[in-house]
Amino acid sequence: MQPSARTAFDYKPQVPRSPNHARWFISGLVLPLIGGIVAYAVATQDATVTAPSQPAVSLTSLPPIPVETAAPIPAAMPTSLLGDTVEYVVRRNDTMDRIFRQLKLNLTDLAVIRDMPSVQQSLDQLRVGDIITLVHDQGLVQQLTRRISETEILSVTRGNEGFNAEVIETPLDIQEVQAEGTIDSSLFVAARAAGVSPELILQLANDIFGWEIDFALDIQPGDKFNLVYEQKYRDGKFIGNGRILAADFSNNGTIHRAVWFESKDGKVADYFAPDGRSMRRAFLRAPLEFTRISSNFNPKRRHPILNTIRAHKGVDYAASTGTVIKAAGDGRVKFVGTKGGYGRVVVLEHGGGIETLYGHMSRFASIRNGQRVRQGTTIGYVGSSGAATGPHLHYEYLVNGVHKNPRTVLLPDAAPIPDSYRAEFLTASGQMFAKLDRSGAATVAAALPR
Length: 450
What we know:
Layout: H1 19-50, E1 84-89, H2 96-102, H3 107-114, H4 120-124, E2 131-137, E3 140-149, E4 152-159, E5 162-169, E6 173-182, H5 187-193, H6 198-208, E7 224-234, E8 237-251, E9 254-262, E10 269-272, E11 292-295, E12 315-318, E13 324-326, E14 331-338, E15 344-351, E16 354-364, E17 372-373, E18 378-382, E19 392-399, E20 402-404, H7 419-447
């Protein structure tokens, strides 16, 4: 505690006063004392006659006298962690070094933390939107926490002998939800009416049925979908949707079914048809997120620019400039560059005499001639280069040099589930398809007139 500040006063002795002053001073003291005695006697006498009875007040019923004390330190936070708290939201191109410099934090602390076993990878893999919480005392890091997965938090805390790191488990509560809808105008509108998010619909179209149904053109009014999917909660709070567990899609009277199966040993994890055939084929029906078709495969189409009858040997997918274009199947880059009316074009070889062509790109992804690519790899972006009237993807599918309609060509079947997992698959998928059937039957029953 700092010593009390002292204030200096000038002191000058007073001139002695006369006796008359002393008498007046004594009178000023005695008279108020006598008046107080008289007033006390009168008040006591009145109280014995007129004072009404009052209820007894116990000492314990009196409200406590507030005592001003310092706020207690939470038990979960040791004194060494007290300081300024900053919640930093990761932005594009951020690094831990850049974040520490921007917040004026000690870079030596960062170096020590990053050198801790198993910390560097969890710390440096930043994603836009991540939140890093830092407690510091004049730039010295006391604590750093960040979520590294849906179920884990990395916590680094300064101790007496350096930093301590731990991964804190935050388990999720997974709930299964059912939804179904009928398409009137578009799949997105029907999904929204059924309470299904756009992300789930993209999962349905691209990860499950994208090998069997061309969602750009094949969808029509009256088509139906029925889903069982996961919703994720943490501490009672909804944090997002999970995986689709089972799905039906009725397209033009044909019902397509799929179920997610993951073996107990984790070696098999994918979507399968009820007979155990993988939903994943060697080629996608459409090499970009489903949109609309501006020009279909047509051997007698009139060219929109040349105004002559010229076969349209592919499918044009209208999409905004910059839309991602994916490799339709595993293959090798045969050509990447500019070629006449195709503009910027990529040609892939897939083996078995099959080639795919992607034209009118605005730009290429990081690919080169001879490079091997996997199905779904980004190879470029939609544009309007070459002889194009607007931004779109021109997509061709060739077998031994002969053009085939990408929408109707028979795609090679995927391998079925291995025999060693078939019994496990049939048991698990049977239970999930039963849930799908019960939910659909319950909806039909609820719609019947009573």
